[in-house]
Amino acid sequence: MKKDAIITKTKELYQGKHYLGIEFNEQTSRDQVLYGEEWLSEECTGIVTTCWASVDVIKEAQKIGANLIIVHEALFWNHGDQQDWLQENKTYQLKKELLDEAKITVWRNHDFVHSGILQEDGSAIDGIFLGVVKTLGWEKFVEDLTRFPFIFRFDKGKTLHELSHELIDKLEVNGIRYVGESKQVIRNLIVGYHALGQDNDIIKQLEREDIDAICLLEMVDFTVLEFAKDSLSLGRNKAVLSAGHFNTEEPGMAYMADFLVEKLELEIPIQFVKSGDTVNYIVK
Is 249 annotated as belonging to a binding site? Predict the structure, then answer.
């Protein structure tokens, strides 16, 4: 099957049209071909899914003979994947050469997968967070995967220390950033927000009496973290954790590979390649 046909069929597997209440179409969606549009009409020799197409991911795609990489995030380090400003950038040139060598097309699947996998009852479940829940083994703890934010209620509770190490082990990351006390018990956890500076709504969620902690995808050092720190100093059981944006969502792209194997029924390799934790930690 040609690459453009695979992309079309993949889009049809999701609800589409809107994501978190924001409507999108073919023109406004972030889900565009980021590289290799001139090779869309060629036969697909294999598919790699990943969170972002790092150089290492591209090299792995070459090894398995895949000429289509489906990513969740940008390819060239900027929103909208603008490339005009990078023409003289050496790293850009070398990365581009790797893609050109194998005529690799890179297509972004962000809005469609987040819009949800259609269910029999007409609802839709976010394809990324479905993969996250399955990787963590938290299916029985989630309230409702068709509604945002995603709330997990642990019957026995987990200490912040236990929860942090569970995330490190299951997400296979190098570390967790957190605000809280290691022995405080977390029974009610929200997952899914980005704290980037305009975070009043997130603070309102953490303020709720039935919420103990929030696991953020991204977080700045102010707003939510300041609130959690002050709350803790006042004896309130509030905590914030973050394994990182890409680290948290990457299991969704692993799930996508299995999903595409089942739904597309193609006789070509379809494989998840982990882009992996981009940071290491030096600690005291």
Answer: yes
